[in-house]
Amino acid sequence: MNLGFLVGVFGVLILSHAAYSTIQYRGLLKIMEEEFSRPPINVILELIIGLALCMWAALTFPGKFLSIHPDSDENRAVFLPDNSDFMIFNHRGRLFPPQIDMKF
Amino acid sequence: MGSSEKRSKDIMSDIPTFSAENLQNNLKVIQNSRTFLSIIAGVLAGIIGFNGLIGFVFYFVVMLITSVGLMAKAGFSADLYFDSWNRVLFDGFLGGLMSFVLFWTFAYDLVHIF
C-alpha cells in the first residue's frame, strides 16, 4: 500500500461524505417543502476536492510508464543468462548482421 | 545475392523495434486510470444531480482532463512511451462510458430518489 492508494481511498471517503451531506440536505428540503436545484457550496467543494484527489490517485497508482525503445537506458541488459555455454555466435545468421544498435 | 541482402537490410531497418511488454504495460496503465476516473465521474454526476446530456458533457470534460493528466505523466513526449499521440489522448475515451452511466444512475438513485 503506497501513497497513491491512500490518496484514492481518502478521495472516495470524501465523496462518500459529500453524498451523505447531500442526502441530509435533501431531507431538509423535504421538511421545508422546497425544490432541489443544486447541492450546497460545501458539498460542491467536497466534490471538487474528492475529484482532484481521485484524479491524482488515478494518475499515480496504476504504475509508471515504461520506455518502449530497446536502446533506452531503462531497457539495458545488465546481466547475461547463466547458461553461457549455449550462446553460440558462429552460425548461419552471421551472414545477415542485425541493424539494431543494442547497448549491452 | 547482393540485392536480396540489401532488400532484407532495408526491411529490417524500416520496421521500428518496440518493446511490446512495456507498450502493453503503458496501455494497461491508461485503461486502469480511465476506468477508475469514469467510475468517480459517475459518482460525482449522480451526487450533483445531473440529468440528460449535462451528464455526458461532464463525462467528456473529465475524460479530457484525464487526457491532459496522462500527457503530463508522459512528460509531454509520447514518443518515449507510445507509438502515437492518439494512444495517450483518445485511447479508451469511450470505453468507460458504460461504467459512467452505471455509477451515475446508482449514485443518483441513492442520493436523490431513495
Automatic annotation (TrEMBL), chain B:
InterPro entries: Emc6 (IPR008504), EMC6-like (IPR029008). The chain crosses the membrane at residues 33-50, 88-108. It is a multi-pass membrane protein. It is found in: Endoplasmic reticulum membrane. One of its GO terms (biological process) is protein folding in endoplasmic reticulum. GO terms for cellular component: EMC complex. Keywords: Endoplasmic reticulum, Membrane, Transmembrane, Transmembrane helix. It holds the Pfam family EMC6. Its main location: endoplasmic reticulum. It comes from the Eukaryota. Belongs to the EMC6 family. This is ER membrane protein complex subunit 6.
